[in-house]
């Protein structure tokens, strides 16, 4: 069996085997007390964030959802989705306790011994719906990312209860249930603006037919300035509901080559438009590039719920959006082909959506 505790690290050690293959993750590496970043994690200079390209005076909108019936709330949501593709919501109705429980459960899962987590690696997992991994697409990446994850594809409560890790499944399921009304409301508001008056069965499948939840763990990094937690990407979802802890480090693309920090706001959820919604709205709503920096002093976690079409859905611009003279910017693509295209390569920002462009 592969080693689960400290193996001396030297230039000649096979870090990829230790981290990726043996399931120690980057957390295992971090806990060995490295003084310098292994070369496999050194990102090209252009992929690192520096103070000079951060816009400290800018921020994404924070929307108070307590008066949901107020038309102004829907308008703010649609405006933010058009302009920023990113916003935070407060007073959204998911109890704080549910959010705290899922954060605790995330720490509990990542604090398991490597041999327990390894049971959920791509090679060992009892199901394709449960996967413990590290970085993004280690086989395709020139430089690895400083992040471990547990990815859970939601099929049914029964399957989740049977197959998801017991360290976190109850809390994750509760969080998914609690966020359901928000997802429904956000999508209803967004659809109205683009002339989709009713979310019927077909639209429901296209907009929210499947869900994936990731638990992300970004351990303390010896040289955070040389690497990334997550590289530049847009999500391939319809919408993403992201819970972050109080550490910070998520940045959203501003104008040109600038980046805007998404500060942790207690009790809030970060919402972002994904590529699938950009395609269905024919570019009206924007999936915006974002990235996460590594931290030199704190372990960070985040928990995104990716709300998606079903894998076998064909996605393209909705007929309601094209009802006028508007020209389609995207073709019809099989959603699972789109997702496979995303996972097949390293993160490369907004280039993924070229796959669906006419
Ligand atoms: C990990 O770091 C990330 C992740 C993200 C994610 C952002 C999102 O928006 S996730 C939402 C994705 N949508 C869905 O999952 C719903 C639809 N699902 C599907 O279409 C399919 O289940 C599938 C994901 C395409 C998998 O289909 P399947 O037929 O089972 O194909 P495979 O051969 O198993 O996988 C293809 C290819 O993708 C890799 N992969 C699959 N699942 C994951 C996963 N959860 N995490 C990472 N990679 C995954 C798999 O390894 C295959 O690659 P190979 O090289 O092995 O061929 C955002 C940012 C991040 O940093
Ligand atoms: O950790 C974060 O704040 C964002 C993570 C992210 O962008 C993702 O998992 O898609
Ligand atoms: Fe993301």
UniProtKB/TrEMBL annotation:
InterPro entries: DIOX_N, IPNS-like_FE2OG_OXY, IPNS-like_sf, Oxoglu/Fe-dep_dioxygenase_dom. Transmembrane segments: none annotated. Pathway: Phenylpropanoid metabolism. Gene3D superfamilies: B-lactam Antibiotic, Isopenicillin N Synthase, Chain (2.60.120.330). One of its GO terms (biological process) is coumarin biosynthetic process. PANTHER family: FERULOYL COA ORTHO-HYDROXYLASE 1-RELATED, OXIDOREDUCTASE, 2OG-FE II OXYGENASE FAMILY PROTEIN. This is Feruloyl coa ortho-hydroxylase 1. The gene is F6'H1_2.
């Amino acid at each position: 069996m592969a080693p689960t505790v400290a193996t001396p690290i030297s230039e000649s050690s096979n870090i990829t085997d230790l981290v990726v293959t043996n399931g120690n993750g980057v957390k295992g590496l971090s806990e060995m007390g490295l003084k310098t970043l292994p070369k496999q994690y050194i990102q090209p200079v252009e992929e690192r964030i520096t103070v000079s390209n951060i816009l400290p005076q800018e921020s994404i909108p924070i929307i108070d959802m307590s008066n949901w019936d107020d038309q102004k709330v829907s308008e703010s949501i649609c405006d933010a989705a058009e302009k920023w593709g990113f916003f935070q919501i407060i007073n959204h109705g998911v109890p704080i306790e549910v959010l705290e429980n899922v954060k605790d459960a995330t720490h509990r899962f990542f604090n398991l011994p490597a041999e327990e987590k390894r049971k959920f690696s791509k090679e060992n997992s009892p199901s394709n719906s449960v996967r413990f991994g590290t970085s993004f697409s280690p086989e395709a990446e020139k430089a690895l990312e400083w992040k471990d994850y547990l990815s859970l594809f939601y099929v049914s409560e029964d399957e989740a209860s049977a197959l998801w890790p017991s360290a976190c499944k109850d809390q994750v399921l509760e969080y998914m249930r609690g966020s359901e009304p928000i997802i429904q409301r956000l999508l209803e508001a967004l659809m109205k603006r683009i002339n989709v008056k009713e979310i019927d069965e077909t639209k429901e499948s296209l907009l929210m037919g499947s869900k994936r939840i990731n638990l992300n763990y970004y351990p303390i990094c010896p040289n955070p300035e040389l690497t990334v937690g997550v590289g530049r990407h847009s999500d391939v979802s319809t919408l993403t509901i992201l819970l972050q802890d109080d550490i910070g480090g998520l940045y959203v693309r501003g104008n040109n080559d600038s980046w805007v920090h998404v500060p942790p706001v207690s009790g809030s959820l970060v919402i972002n438009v994904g590529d699938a919604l950009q395609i269905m709205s024919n570019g009206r709503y924007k999936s915006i590039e974002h990235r996460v920096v590594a931290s030199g002093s704190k372990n960070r976690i985040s928990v995104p719920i990716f709300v998606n079409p079903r894998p076998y859905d064909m996605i393209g611009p909705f007929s309601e959006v094209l009802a006028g003279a508007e020209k389609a910017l995207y073709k019809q693509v099989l959603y699972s082909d789109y997702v496979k295209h995303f996972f097949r390569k390293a993160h490369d920002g907004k280039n993924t959506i070229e796959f669906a462009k006419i």
